[in-house]
Design a protein that fits this description.
The protein is an alpha+beta fold. 24% of the residues lie in helices and 31% in strands. The protein is built from 20 helices and 51 strands. The strands form eleven sheets. Strands 2-7-8-9-10-17-14-13-12 form a nine-stranded antiparallel beta sheet. It has an eight-stranded mixed beta sheet with strand order 42-39-44-34-51-50-47-48, covered by helices on one side. A hairpin with a 4-residue loop joins strand 9 and strand 10. The longest helix is centred in the middle third of the chain and has 21 residues. 54% of the residues are buried.
C-alpha cells in the first residue's frame, strides 16, 4: 500500500465478545446423568465410528454395551421385484384416468407390490460385570468434544472410572477401566448375541465370537490388556483380578463386500485389525481417535446466547424444563449432538446412517431400522454439507451409485422401462428397490430424490468435475427413468407428463393412496432433470439426451395453489384442510428444494404458509424437524423456534436426546441440525442469505464453520440485538460471492483461500481506505469499522447512517497535518423525543468532543440540521470513533461530518470544494465507469477488493472516468476512492 493506504480494521472483537456466553458448566457439550440407563435403550449413550456402534448402559455391577455393525442385516443378495408387475400398468392407469381409484388401488395392491426388504440387526452385547455394591457419587456422561463416554462411581471408598470410545482410524471400540487406588480393578467381560448360530472361542487373552445371521457371517474379537493384576480366559469369559487399570479392545468384521457379494472372510479381517492395534497403548489409541474426530467436530462452533442458570442440570431434566427455561445452550447441545451422531454413524467405508443411525437392539426393529427413501434417509443427510461434515457424506454417495443395477431391474420389471433406474420408498443392505407394504409403496421417485444429493455435494464443491463425472451416470439414469416412464394425463387439458400410478407419500385422498402426478413427484422430477441437464452442460456431454430432458421438463405440471389458497398435494385439488398428516410432501419444493422462495415465488410462499397452518404445528419428532426447515425457508424465525420448542420436549426427545417419532428415529436429530443452519444461513439459488430466520429468542449470538453452496465457509459470524454485526466468509474455490443480509447485498469475485470480512451492513472491512485529510468532509457511511449502525437511503436516495441505538459506534480514518483545535460539524436528523449525543474518542478511548442532537431542532428522520463542537486533534493519521448515546429506542440519522480549522469550518470547506457527486455507470464489459461532478479538481483511485491498486485518474469539474476501456478488467467488484479537495467518497463498483 502507498501514501497511507490501509485495509479496514477487523472487527473480530465483536465475534469474540459474542462467544463468551457459553453455559456455566465445566463443559457445556456434555450429556450427563446421575443414574444408569436402567436397561432402557433411549437412556443409554451412543458411540460409533461409522462401521460399529455401541450403546452404553453404564450399570455398576453389570454394564452392557449394545453392539452393532453397519453390514449385519437379515436376508441376503437378491431383489424383491414382483414379476409381471409392468403388465398391469395399463389397467391401473386406465382405471385412474377414468376416476376409478378403487379398481386402480386393487390392481396395484394385488399385482405390483413386492416382498419387504431386510432389517438391520443387532450384533449383541459386550457385558462387563463387577462385585461392586452400594455405589455412590454415580455419574454417566458423553463428552461431545472428545466423543468419549464415561461412567464414574465410588464403591468401598474407591473411585472407579470407565471410559468408552469408538475409533475410526483403528476400527475398534475401546473401554478403559481404572480406579484411584492401585490393584482395585477386578471384573469379568464376555459377549452375547441374540442369534442362535454362534460359537465362542479364545486365543490367549482374546475372545473370538463367530455368528451367522442369514447370509451375513460376522466375527467379534475382544482383547484385554492390563496394568498389573492377573488375567484368565475360560468358558467365553475374560476375568481380571487386582489390576491397576485394564483396556478392552473390540472389533467386528463381516463377510459383506457388496450388495451382491458376501464372500469376505470376517476372521481374517478381524485378525488383521487386531494385529494392527496390538502393542498400542490406551494413549496411542486415544490420540489417533481424537485427532480424527476433533478434526471434523471442531470445525463448527455455535453460541445462541447466555446459558440459563439450569444449564448444569441433568440432561433429561433440561429437556423436561426447556419450554420454561428456553435455555439456548440446550439447543447448542442438541445441535452439536446431531453432528456427533452423524460422525459416529456415517464414515467412508461403512454403510449410510439408517432409520436408527447405527444403533439397534432388536432383531425385529420397528420399520426394520432400514432405509426409508420417501423422507427419512434423505433427512439424515440434510446437514452433512452445511454442518461441515463432508467426510460423512460418502457412505450415502457410494450407496446411491451401488443401487443402480438393482434399480434398473426394477425399472424393467415394474415399469417396462429399459433405460434408467428406479427406487421406491424403501431399501436395505441388499439395495432392493421394488415397491413394498401396499399401494402406498408404489412411489417411483426415490431414486430421483436420492440423486439430488449427488448434485448438492457438487454445489458445495463446484470445481470438482472429477466427482461430477463419477456420479453423472447415476444422475442420468435416475432422470432417464422419468423421461421414459412418464405418461400424458388426460384430465387437466394441458396434457402434462406425470407419474402414473404413484402416491403422495403415506397420505391418501378419500381413502385411496394411488394417484397420478402428485406434487412431490413433479417437484422432484423437475429437480433431477434440471440438475442432470446442468451437469451435462458442465461436462460437455450428452447433448441429445439433454434435449430429451429439456423437452420433458417443459411438460411437467407446475406447483399450484388450490381452493383454500394451499399448495395442492395432488394434481387435483383434493386437499382436506383438517388433515394433520405428518408428511408434508408437497412442500418438497420449499425445502429441501428451492423451487418455492420468498424472492422468486411470493404467491407460492403464501400457499406454503396456508398448507403449514392447515397441517398444524404438532407432529412426530422427524416431522417437527422438517417444519423447522420449512419455517426457516419462509423467513419466519419465531415460528421455526416454536418447532424447536416442541421438539425439545420429553414426548419428542428421549432422555439420551435421541429423536422420538415415537419410537426412536434418528432423522429428527439430523433434520434439527439442518433447521438451525437454515435459520442462520441459507445458500440456495446462487446467494448466501445471512440470518434469514433469526428468532427473537436468539438476539445475540455467533456461529463459525458452517458451509454454503458455491464453495464458501462462514469462517465466523456474529449478531447483536437481532442484527448482523460481523461476518467473515472464506472462499474455498474462488467462485463469485453473492451475499444478502436483510436489504443489504454484496457481490464480488473471490480468490481461493481468501477470507472476506464484512460488517453488519455488508461493507467489506478488509477493503482499502484512504484517510481524509483535515480540513475535510466525510460521509457517515464511509466508516472503516462499526457496531450496530445501518446504512439506509434518505428521501432523496442518498445514503446515511440510520437505526442508531444507544451504544452503537462507527470509526473513521483521518489525517491531520497540524495539531490544534478544530471545529467538527455533523449533519444529523431525529424524530426521537429525548436529546442524544455523539462522543468522539481517539484510539485510546479518550473523549475529544461531544456533539448534541437536539430534538427541538429537527422534526423527522430526514429533517437535517448541523450540530458543532470544538475538537483538539494531534497531528498525523488517526482513527476517530463516534459513539452514540441516548435514552430513546432509535437516536438519530447521521449524514456526514466535517472537520475544519477554527470556527469557520463549514464556510472554509465550502470555499474550496462545495460539490462532489460520484455515480457508477455501465458502459462496456470488462470495464468500470464513474460519472463525477465537482466544482474543483479530483482524483480517482481504483482498487481490487484485495487492496491492489488498479490505476488512478485525475480530472476537473464534471467528467466521465473509465477504467479498462479496452475490456481488460476482470469481472468482479472494485473499490473506487474519489477525492476532491477536502471531500472524499468511497464506493463499490462492479465490472461485468
Amino acid at each position: 500500500m502507498k501514501l497511507g493506504l490501509m485495509f479496514g480494521v477487523k472487527i473480530a472483537a465483536a465475534f469474540c465478545a459474542a462467544t463468551l456466553s457459553y453455559a456455566s458448566t465445566d463443559n457445556p457439550l456434555t450429556l450427563w446423568y446421575n443414574s444408569d440407563a436402567a436397561g432402557e435403550f433411549t437412556n443409554a449413550l451412543p458411540i460409533g465410528n461409522g462401521y460399529m456402534g455401541g450403546i452404553i448402559y453404564g450399570g455398576v455391577t453389570k454394564d452392557i454395551i449394545g453392539l452393532n455393525e453397519s453390514t449385519v442385516w437379515s436376508g441376503g443378495p437378491g431383489d424383491n421385484n414382483k414379476q409381471g408387475a409392468a403388465s398391469h400398468l395399463k389397467d391401473a392407469r386406465d382405471a385412474m384416468f377414468r376416476g376409478d381409484y378403487r379398481t386402480a388401488e386393487s390392481i396395484v395392491s394385488n399385482y405390483m407390490i413386492g416382498p419387504g426388504p431386510a432389517s438391520f440387526q443387532p450384533v449383541g452385547d459386550l457385558v462387563i460385570t463387577t462385585s461392586h455394591s452400594g455405589a455412590t457419587n454415580y455419574r454417566r456422561e458423553l463428552d461431545l468434544k472428545t466423543a468419549i463416554a464415561k461412567t464414574t462411581y465410588t464403591s468401598g471408598g474407591v473411585k472407579y472410572t470407565r471410559e468408552y470410545f469408538a475409533s475410526y482410524p483403528d476400527h475398534v471400540i475401546v473401554v478403559r477401566l481404572s480406579a484411584d487406588k492401585s490393584g482395585s480393578v477386578s471384573f469379568g467381560a464376555t459377549m452375547t448375541t441374540p442369534h442362535r448360530n454362534n460359537k465362542m472361542s479364545n486365543s490367549g487373552n482374546t475372545l473370538i465370537y463367530d455368528v451367522t445371521v442369514n447370509s451375513i457371517k460376522f466375527q467379534n474379537r475382544l482383547n484385554v490388556v492390563v496394568d498389573g493384576g492377573t488375567v484368565s480366559v475360560s468358558n467365553g469369559n475374560i476375568n481380571v483380578q487386582g489390576a491397576n487399570s485394564a483396556m478392552l479392545v473390540l472389533t467386528i468384521a463381516t463377510n459383506f463386500k457388496s450388495y451382491n457379494d458376501v464372500s469376505g472372510d470376517p476372521g481374517a479381517i478381524a485378525a488383521d485389525i487386531m494385529s494392527k492395534v496390538k502393542g498400542k497403548s490406551y494413549d496411542d489409541l486415544l490420540s489417533a481417535h481424537l485427532k480424527d474426530y476433533q478434526t471434523i467436530f471442531n470445525r463448527v462452533k455455535i453460541d445462541l446466547g447466555t446459558a440459563d442458570a439450569s444449564a448444569g442440570d441433568i440432561t433429561s431434566t433440561r429437556v423436561k424444563n426447556f419450554n420454561s427455561t428456553n435455555d439456548p445452550s440446550l439447543v447448542e447441545l442438541h445441535y452439536q449432538y446431531g453432528r456427533y451422531l452423524l460422525i459416529a454413524s456415517s464414515r467412508k467405508g461403512g454403510q449410510p446412517a439408517n432409520l436408527q443411525g447405527i444403533w439397534n437392539k432388536d432383531t425385529n426393529p420397528v420399520w426394520g431400522s432400514k432405509y426409508t427413501t420417501n423422507i427419512n434417509l434423505e433427512m439424515n443427510y440434510w446437514p452433512v454439507e452445511t454442518a461441515n461434515l463432508g467426510e460423512c457424506v460418502w457412505p450415502l454417495i457410494d450407496k446411491i451409485k451401488s443401487m443402480v443395477p438393482q434399480g434398473e431391474k426394477t425399472a424393467k420389471v415394474h415399469w417396462g422401462v429399459d433405460e434408467g433406474w428406479v427406487e421406491h420408498h424403501n431399501t436395505d443392505l441388499w439395495n432392493r428397490t421394488a415397491p413394498i407394504d401396499g399401494a402406498w409403496g408404489l412411489w417411483p421417485s426415490g431414486a430421483g430424490w436420492l440423486s439430488t444429493h449427488l448434485w448438492e455435494h457438487f454445489l458445495f464443491n463446484p470445481t470438482d468435475k472429477a466427482y461430477l463425472q463419477d456420479v453423472y451416470s447415476t444422475m442420468k439414469g435416475a432422470a432417464l427413468f422419468f423421461v421414459n416412464s412418464l405418461v400424458e394425463e388426460p384430465e387437466t387439458g394441458h396434457k402434462y407428463l406425470v407419474t402414473a400410478p404413484s402416491d403422495s407419500p403415506e397420505n391418501d385422498h378419500s381413502g385411496y393412496n394411488v394417484c397420478f402426478g402428485p406434487t412431490m413427484d413433479n417437484q422432484i422430477i423437475r429437480d433431477v432433470l434440471n440438475y442432470t441437464i446442468e451437469a451435462s452442460k458442465i461436462l460437455g456431454v450428452d447433448e441429445d439426451v439433454r434435449a430429451r430432458m429439456e423437452a420433458t421438463v417443459k411438460r411437467l405440471p407446475p406447483t399450484k395453489t388450490g381452493k383454500y389458497g394451499q399448495i395442492t398435494e395432488w394434481l387435483q385439488d383434493w386437499d382436506d384442510p383438517n388433515n394433520k398428516n405428518r408428511h408434508i410432501s408437497h412442500l418438497y419444493g420449499l425445502f429441501p428444494s428451492a423451487q418455492i422462495t420468498p424472492e422468486e415465488t411470493p404467491d407460492l410462499i403464501k400457499g406454503a404458509g396456508v398448507t403449514l397452518k392447515q397441517r398444524g404445528d404438532d407432529a412426530t419428532g422427524w416431522s417437527l424437524a422438517w417444519k423447522i426447515n420449512f419455517w426457516a425457508r419462509m423467513h419466519d424465525g419465531d415460528h421455526a423456534y416454536t418447532m424447536i420448542r416442541m421438539l425439545l420436549t420429553p414426548n419428542k426427545t428421549y432422555n439420551n436426546l435421541f429423536d422420538a417419532h415415537p419410537p426412536f428415529q434418528i432423522d429428527g436429530n439430523f433434520g434439527a441440525v439442518s433447521g438451525v443452519n437454515e435459520m442462520l444461513m441459507q445458500s440456495h439459488n446462487n446467494r448466501i442469505n445471512l440470518l434469514p430466520a433469526l428468532p427473537s429468542q436468539w438476539k445475540d449470538g455467533s456461529i463459525k464453520g458452517i458451509r454454503a453452496r458455491g464453495g464458501f465457509e462462514i469462517d465466523s459470524m456474529a449478531w447483536k440485538g437481532g442484527k448482523l454485526t460481523y461476518v467473515a466468509i472464506k472462499s474455498d474455490v474462488g467462485q463469485t460471492l453473492n451475499l444478502v443480509s436483510g436489504t443489504n447485498t454484496f457481490t464480488t469475485t473471490t480468490v481461493p483461500g481468501k477470507i472476506y470480512e464484512f460488517d453488519g451492513n455488508l461493507k467489506l472491512t478488509n477493503q482499502p481506505f484512504e484517510p481524509v485529510t483535515v480540513p475535510g468532509k466525510i460521509q457517515a457511511e464511509s466508516y472503516i469499522a462499526m457496531d450496530g449502525v445501518q446504512i439506509e437511503d434518505d428521501t432523496e436516495g442518498e445514503p446515511n447512517l440510520g437505526w442508531i441505538n444507544d451504544g452503537d459506534w462507527s470509526t473513521y480514518l483521518v489525517k491531520v497535518p497540524t495539531a490544534g483545535t478544530y471545529t467538527v460539524t455533523a449533519r444529523v436528523a431525529s424524530e426521537a423525543e429525548a436529546a442524544s449525543t455523539i462522543t468522539i474518542t481517539d484510539s485510546t478511548g479518550k473523549a475529544l468532543a461531544t456533539l448534541t442532537v437536539d430534538p427541538e431542532k429537527t422534526n423527522g428522520w430526514n429533517d437535517w440540521y448541523e450540530t458543532t463542537a470544538d475538537i483538539a486533534l494531534a497531528a498525523g493519521e488517526q482513527k476517530l470513533r463516534f459513539e452514540y448515546s441516548g435514552e430513546s429506542n432509535f437516536l438519530m440519522n447521521f449524514d456526514w461530518f466535517s472537520i475544519a480549522k477554527g470556527t469557520d469550518a463549514v464556510p472554509e470547506a465550502r470555499k474550496t470544494v462545495t460539490m462532489l457527486d460520484v455515480r457508477p455507470v455501465s458502459l462496456s464489459k470488462g470495464s468500470v465507469s464513474l460519472m463525477i461532478r465537482s466544482n474543483a479538481g479530483f482524483k480517482v483511485s481504483l482498487y481490487t477488493v484485495q487492496g491492489m491498486l488498479v490505476g488512478t485518474h485525475e480530472g476537473f469539474g464534471s467528467s466521465l472516468v473509465e477504467f479498462g476501456e479496452d475490456g481488460s478488467l476482470a469481472r468482479g467488484n472494485y473499490i473506487a476512492v474519489v477525492t476532491s479537495g477536502n471531500l472524499q467518497k468511497t464506493l463499490k463498483i462492479r465490472a461485468f
